[in-house]
Design goal:
Strand order of the largest sheet: 2-1-8-9
Low-confidence stretches: none
Number of helices: 8
Structural class: alpha+beta
Helix content: 25-40%
Radius of gyration: 17 Å
Order of helices and strands: EHHHEHEEEHHHEHEEE
Length: 230
């Protein structure tokens, strides 16, 4: 089975954050529609298309459980039911406001401070849905090993199939590919003006979402939201 699934935070549809993220990446992951990107001084449309190419394929999100193929013993309906049951046990919360930041040479919206509630949500998801995850394909594991990691990240990669989970989790909503410092600095200045209104208030977290990728080169689509009961 080539399909992959991922459990993400995706801002509620129609909110300023959701509208900005989809427009910036040029694709709405829920409808599949291509969107007009906001103009950025000093950057042409073609260059911005390249800069956002990789995150556009994943859709605007923050990763809670990274992409995985279903274990042979698990059906897609089982995952759906488990997600609905998990969400029913949570409550909405507010995380610290977002901030535009540099993470590993790319630009992302990150939390401006630590959030125990967000960390607990990610930890619980990683543990609760581990049974649905098939082991990574050898090629995927080799690809991840090719990136330099700390000893702790290597340990997490071997155990959980991904190096940035649990104590290495960093909430982020990716906006660009990796950029060299001059271009990254210029784009950060421009994006700071666009994102400032989105960073003025705490981040509302009212549910989680399931994203699916039909095959390796296909874009991820948001296939269902699981709201937390109020």
């Amino acid at each position: 089975m080539s399909a992959r699934h991922a459990i993400y935070f995706a801002p509620d549809p129609g909110t300023p954050l959701a509208r900005f993220g989809a427009a910036w990446l040029g694709r709405d992951a829920e409808s599949g529609a291509r969107l007009t990107r906001p103009a950025v001084e000093g950057f042409g449309d073609e260059r911005l298309e390249r800069i956002t190419e990789t995150p556009r394929g994943y859709g605007f999100h923050a990763t809670l459980a990274p992409p995985f193929r279903l274990a042979q013993s698990c059906a897609r309906t089982m995952l759906d039911e488990a997600l609905a049951a998990f969400a029913a046990t949570r409550r909405p919360f507010r995380a610290p406001p977002l901030t535009l930041a540099v993470l590993d040479d790319f630009l992302a919206l990150m939390l401006s401070d630590e959030s125990q509630a967000m960390q607990a949500l990610e930890d619980d998801i990683i543990h609760a849905f581990e049974r649905f995850r098939a082991p990574p394909a050898p090629a995927e594991y080799i690809r991840r090993q090719a990136v330099t990691h700390t000893p702790r990240q290597e340990e997490l990669l071997r155990r959980w199939g991904y190096p940035f989970v649990l104590d290495e989790f960093r909430f982020h909503m990716t906006l660009t590919c990796e950029l060299d410092q001059p271009e990254r600095r210029a784009l950060r200045r421009a994006l700071a003006r666009l994102t400032a209104p989105l960073c003025a208030s705490p981040l509302a977290v009212a549910g989680i979402a399931l994203f699916e990728q039909a095959e390796r080169d296909a874009p991820f689509m948001l296939t269902r939201r699981y709201p937390f009961p109020a």
